[in-house]
Amino acid sequence: MAHHSRSHRHRQEGPCHFSLMSLSATRRLLLAAAPLGTLWLAVSWAAGWWG
After folding, report:
1. Rounded to an integer, what distance in angstroms lies between the CA atom of residue 30 and that of residue 35?
2. Which residues of the chain have pLDDT under 50?
3. Which of 4, 26, 44, 45 is the 20 to 30 A CA-CA neighbour of 16?
4. Whole-prediction pTM value?
C-alpha cells in the first residue's frame, strides 16, 4: 500500500524549497520575538525609562 497524498509533496529539487523553509523559520522567529518585544516595551514604560 503506497502512502501518497496529492496536496503534500516533498520536492527538494524545486527552486523555492530553501526559500520557503527560511521564510517559515523567519516567521517562527518573529512570532516568538513579538511577545517578548511587547513585554519589554510594557516593562520599560512602566519603569519610567521613557522620560
Report:
1. 9
2. none
3. 4
4. 0.45
